[in-house]
Amino acid sequence: AQSVTQLDSHVSVSEGTPVLLRCNYSSSYSPSLFWYVQHPNKGLQLLLKYTSAATLVKGINGFEAEFKKSETSFHLTKPSAHMSDAAEYFCVVSGLDSNYQLIWGAGTKLIIKP
Amino acid sequence: KAGVTQTPRYLIKTRGQQVTLSCSPISGHRSVSWYQQTPGQGLQFLFEYFSETQRNKGNFPGRFSGRQFSNSRSEMNVSTLELGDSALYLCASSFGTGGSDEQYFGPGTRLTVT
Q1: Of A100, A104, A108, which to mutate for an interface test with B (greatest number of B Cβ within 10 Å)?
Q2: Mind listing the pLDDT tens digit for each residue in B20-64?
Q3: Using one digit for the tens of pLDDT, what is the confidence trace for A72-87?
Q4: Chain B contact set for A94 (CB, 8 A)
Q5: Cβ contacts of A46 on chain B, cutoff 8 Å
Q6: In angstroms, what separates the C-alpha of B105 from chain A's closest C-alpha?
Q7: What's the mean pLDDT in B74-80?
Q8: Helix (H, G, I), strand (E, B), or coil: what is residue A96?
Q9: By CB atoms within 10 Å of each CB, which of A35, A104, A107, B9 scores lowest?
C-alpha cells in the first residue's frame, strides 16, 4: 500500500536561510508526488508535482523538490526563506496501488524567524 | 475562471442533526474530492466523484455520504452528527481524476457541532 511520511511536524528557520522539508513515501509502482501549501486562513494550493519526467521539479515561489527513487524521498527545498513562506506544507503521493487516490502526509508547519 | 466555491462557509449544528454541504467545481472539471481537516487528524480523504460515480472512498463511517450531479456539482451529507464531526470540510476539483491532475481547493465549510 502507498504511504507518505513527513519527518518533521514543525520546522523553524531564520529569514534568508535555506529551507528543507522532508518527505518519504512508499509505493509499489511509479508514483506521482505533490507538495501543497496552506497559508493561514487561506486555501490549499499546489506548489509543485512530479509525474515521472525530470527528477528535479521546480515549483512556485522559488521552491523545488527532488525525486530520489533509491531513497524513496521527495524533499522540498528553498535556498532562502521569506517571511511569506510561513505556512503548512503537505507532501502527497498517488499511484496505481492507491487506485490513484491521493495519500496525504500529516503536514509540516514552517515557521520563519525574523 | 471562477474558482471552487463551497456553501455554506460556516455552519453550527446540534448533535444528532444532519447536514448537507455543497461544492461547485471549476467549470470543465469533472472530478470532485472531499476532505475533512481537523487539528488532531490533519487532512483526511472522504471520497472522490468523477462523472457522477464514486471512484474512491476513505475510512469514514456510513454517516458520511456524497453525490455528484450531471453538472459536476457535488454535495456531501453527514447524518446523526457527533461532536467529533466538527471540522473544516474541504472540496477540491480537478479536470481528470485527482491522482495525477492538480487539485484546486475551495475555501472550505467550517462545521461546528454542539
Answers
A1: A100
A2: 999 999 999 999 999 999 987 888 999 999 999 998 899 999 999
A3: 999 999 999 999 999 9
A4: 98-100
A5: 102-103
A6: 6
A7: 97
A8: helix
A9: B9
